[in-house]
């Protein structure tokens, strides 16, 4: 949660107050990021070739074409868009949980935000140690995220809410980070920057609609209704991802990196998910390689 202040507000601010002190600490924390960027050896960075004929419009069309022709990227993009828009409106819901659900103040808001952040940090450590990105993890993260939101919806205990928010933070990073990595790694080198841009569009593009949506739900049925809808959307998105990939499989063999591994891990053979045939794989590769000039 970032706060922006005008020059007048900063000048008139009482730096002994809790709000201004937190603003100051938040600003100082960015020096660590700046120092890390400054210490990077840019000479060792890989620089893919840039098309001289590329422009904003062609770049956007190329990125969208890549997502449309790559099932894994399609699932990652759609899951992130729906979860980020309809199930990840914590900037709206956290203050309302503290105020309307728990009937507490700013201290409680800080606690639940910190607990969620600790869960997100734990999820980031899990991703770092695994060092593998897959659609299976995206779907698993969406399922866990949605199920925990459904459990969280009726609760009115601070301790129970904090425990669930910790694990929600873990699953949030599992689907969020793996989606970004999957979209980028599945893309050819000249499209990886555009693929990352599409991910951030999916994550942030629906934020205005999502914030309004969450506020309306809270006005109708409190935070309980907002979390029920958010959890339902998360589970529905995960189930759609399983169906979407299964409809593009023929059941001939299994792939660890495909969602077939997810179905196998759950011992659900009825999903009949599998890797695409070699012919389908070649067709997808050919479609991806033609994206350098998608308007032709």
What is this structure, in a nutshell?
The chain has 296 residues and is mainly α. 72% of the residues lie in helices and 0% in strands.
What features would you highlight for this structure?
single chain, 296 residues, mainly alpha, 12 helices, 0% strand
How would you describe this structure to a colleague?
By secondary structure, the protein is mainly α. The chain has helices spanning 7-12, 18-38, 56-69, 71-86, 90-101, 106-130, 135-152, 158-185, 192-204, 207-246, 259-265, 278-289. Residues 1-15 and 250-296 have low confidence and may be disordered.
Mean pLDDT level = 77
Q: Biggest sheet, open or closed, and with what strands and sense?
A: none
Radius of gyration: 22 Å
How much of the polypeptide forms β-strand, as a percent range? under 5%
Gap from first CA to last CA: 44 Å
Number of strands: 0
**Succession of helices and strands:** HHHHHHHHHHHH
The helix count comes to 12
SSE-based structural type: mainly alpha
Shape designation: globular
Helix content: over 70%
Uncertain residue ranges: 1-15, 250-296
